[in-house]
Amino acid sequence: MCRACHGAYMRANRKRYSDYSAEQKQKADARSYLNVYVARGTVKKLPCELCGARRTWAIHLDWSKPLEVIWLCRVCRGKFLVERRRKLNKNKVK
């Protein structure tokens, strides 16, 4: 798909912010807020907290605190999210 066609497709099919649930809006707001602070240089991207890799993603532990994140690389992020899902599912079963 060319860039113009992709843009037209996304405008026609992407969910609007007003269509988001309250939880989805909170997540989108937290991500957006953090991205602004990273772009301004107020919040610095750090190396992975587990292995020290340089390329990292921010992980929000609490969406109501958008600037409180942990920085994890792709591999550690995957392991962290799998473990967190296991704990959540374990608590739901009980």
Structural class of the helices, strands and pairings? mainly alpha
Our count of helices gives: 3
- In whole angstroms, the N-to-C terminal distance is 48 Å
| Inertia-based shape | globular
Radius of gyration: 17 Å
Mean pLDDT: 93
Low-confidence stretches: none
- How many domain units? 1
Structure summary, number of beta strands: 2
Helix percentage: 40-55%
Report the portion of residues in β strands: 5-15%
* Order of helix and strand elements from N to C terminus: HHEEH
Quaternary structure of the protein: single chain
Strand order, largest beta sheet: 1-2
Largest sheet: 2 strands, antiparallel
Please provide a brief summary of the model.
The protein has three helices and two strands. The chain is mostly helical and 94 residues long. The chain is globular.
Key descriptive features of the protein:
3 helices, 2 strands, 9% strand, two-stranded antiparallel ribbon, 94 residues, mainly alpha
Account of the 3D structure:
With 94 residues, this protein is mostly helical. The protein has one domain. Helix content is 53%, strand content 9%. It has 3 helices and 2 strands, in the order ααββα. The chain has a two-stranded antiparallel ribbon. It starts with a helix and ends with a helix. The mean pLDDT is 93.
Please describe the topology of this protein:
Blueprint: H1 3-13, H2 22-40, E1 57-60, E2 69-72, H3 74-93
Antiparallel strand pairs: 1-2
